[in-house]
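USER: Please consider what follows.
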Amino acid sequence: MSDYFEIKEEDLLGRIGRLRTRRGWVETPALAPVIDPGRNLVPPSEIVSLGFSLVMTNAYLIKKRYGDIGPELGVRGILGVQCPVMTDSGAYQLMEYGEVGVAPLEIVEYQVNLGSDIGVILDIPTRYGSPRETVAKEVDETLRRAQEALTVDRKGMLLVGPVQGGTYLDLVSRSAMEMAALDFDLYAVGGPVQLMASYSYSELVRLFMTAKLYLPPGRPVHLFGAGNPHMLALAVAMGADLFDSASYALYAKGGRYMTPHGVYRLEELEDLPCECPVCSKLTAKEFAEMLYQERVYMLALHNLHVLRGELRRIKNAIHEGRLWELVELRARSHPSLAKALDEYKKYTFYIEKFHRVTKGLVSGLFFYEEISRARPEVYRHLSRLKSRYISPAASAVVLALETEAKPFSRFGWIAELQKQLASDMELNGKVHVVVVSSAFGPIPIELDSVYPLSQHESAIDLRKAENAQAIAADVAWYVAGLGRYKVAVIVHEEGQRRVAMRIAEQLRRRGLPAYVRPFRSADDVVSFVKLVLGLHT
């Protein structure tokens, strides 16, 4: 953590932080609405009044329009705002038109003289579909420009170093490593606009996470062009602290109506699914029948309210430790987001390193389906079983399939069974009870009160073959990996036989005798355990 970026709370790779600029503090995650310095669909001061603490404009366009007068007016004077302002360098125009009439060092100096709080070097954004040889040269040139930009006296302006490379992940990783070594104030992941426009969110996850692996964890990271509200939670979960987008205006001009879970055509709406100050006073018919200029303005305001509201939900989710659940909820809003979450889970090994074990506000976890098991708490539990846990020296393991009653060691028939096994003179010390959880897999009974092994609710249906197979594999890995048991007994309630049989099959394949027993009473299970122990001793 730097002296200008303070991390207050974390969840997954998302964090609530405070970024100090020379004009004031910006709470992150923050979206900077992009403002055209020549044409304002919504007055910048009105955007700020809606709760946006940072705005973004284009220094290249200001230079073209105002020239040497621009620094005299100052970027805040041009926009008519007093909040921190981030400026871009013309890289987007470079990507769109192939060239800009300004030198890389010149535009950095211009941003300093404008009074920008956060400036961006004139990098070369990676165009989607460009040949690898071209992209490699562009990455090299961006790195050269980055080194040159750091020689400028920035007079307190924070400077952003963008990572490029596009879908060529080896180039992305090299770009990130070399950019990180240059010690920029902020970093950014460049070139994702085309991916997001085509909803190629899986590609975006690979691009962003590859860069994130190599960037300094204590520095803020910017994601260029992220403005669709349904993907902001995923972006924050990946570690994006700042975004910029003109989507609020571009969507409004196209008659597109934002919601947290998708974008709709205004003319196709029967009713307005929103209670923002704009929508609470209008019907969908009244909105659609407005004169074009008024409709575009009002629709842009609505879109800004939706973006601001989604950022508030994300911050609240981080505070409550529920960012994963929000990401999972948003993943159901579009198949491309569901695929992106499936890609995101591949980085759980890295996410777990930064995901806090507990927070000041402790709440139970919710598991809805198999993808929920990709959350870092499950990975942490299983990896710690492997690296830290030492099981009791027992001859038999009783694998008790979970019940609704938790903690398992205190309530329900599992607690009763554990008590009887421990008090039986013949079995005392010979049997170890392990709960089979649909969320966490194997939970040794003596650990079940450790957060969050009992503090969760799961709707994962173990009657489904794929879910049963996944849990059986985890349990077999744990039991067989210990290598100390002579026999296993799987105890289940009605409706759990499928997963019990899968566990038994997996254990037998690994050479461990395994028996399945439906739960009738604790006495019955104790008698059965004595019987099978007698057969294998």
User: Anything to note?
Assistant: The first strand starts at residue 5 and ends at 11. The chain has a mean pLDDT of 93. The CA atoms of residues 293 and 516 lie 71 Å apart.
